[in-house]
Amino acid sequence: MTSPLRTICLLHLTAVSAFLYSGCGPAVRFMANTGDQSKGITYYIGGAGPIGNVGSLDIPNGLQDAGYEGAIEVFTWQGFTHAGDQINLSRNRSKAAELSTKIRNYRRRYPNNEIHIIALSAGTGIATFALEYLPQDVHIDQMVFLGCSMSSRYDLTRALRRVQGRLYVIYSPRDPILSKVVWYTGTVDRASAAEDGIAGLRGFRMPHSMGPDTERQYTKLYNVPWRIDFSDAGYDGLHTDSTKRDFIRRYIGPLILGEDENLIGPGGQYADVPFGAAQRPSGSGAATSRPAEQASAVESQVNR
Known about the structure:
The chain has a single domain (4-299), classed as Rossmann fold, CATH 3.40.50. It is 41% helix and 12% strand. The protein has 14 helices and six strands. It has helices at 4-29, 58-65, 82-87, 89-109, 123-133, 157-161, 176-185, 193-196, 199-202, 214-218, 245-256, 261-264, 291-294, 296-299, and strands spanning 36-45, 70-75, 115-120, 143-146, 167-171, 221-225. A six-stranded parallel beta sheet has the order 2-1-3-4-5-6. The chain is globular, with a radius of gyration of 18 Å. It starts with a helix and ends in a 5-residue tail after the last helix.
């Protein structure tokens, strides 16, 4: 049975979303995507609700400020309410299938170009499900999760098989939306936040049930906790300020371009391995190390 507190949270989110819907949501639909598709593509998947696409201007601008010349496409998947987007798993998987189709079509057209994903909040669920739907011969390069509202114990194994480079999960225990709202409504993958935790508050941890290549796939994952120098770039550890233009320019743009030291430090010293994961191979800190190649022997024995 739904608890009274959870019900209140859902009703509140619904009311707020309805109020804001006419002001912010439709504008994103008319936003022109930018950049040159022949030089790669980065998909941005915003968070839940009609104002979930916060960052749809700052992220493209920040990437371009960092020197990125590829296309940047805002994938709009949001419905009428924040709460509905957070809890409607069947619809979210349907929207993820649409994103998966976009990725496959781009890969067919540009087989050698890089594909990256940046996702915010509930959008991280859409991104994860989309990768799970990709065929085994279609991969993306780097993926970045901001304010992730997925369960910390969600099994990322299948999604990580489709990642050539790294998954960077930037998390903050200071995030008030995750700690005060998602904690009660449940995560976007519909797990119990109280039991499994929220990835945007603590990073990802190993899933309860592991397959033969789970530990190896999780060596691609970097949990990056909020730190004080992020504030200089406008990210104070709150739910959406990691989308600020200067933070994207300083920390996310460089890793999309193949250099992640600004974000994770030399050798990954500012990031942590998911608890229980296999030790990362020596020298695997750089985004260009292609850990998927290290896992290929294991992957070839797994039935996808």
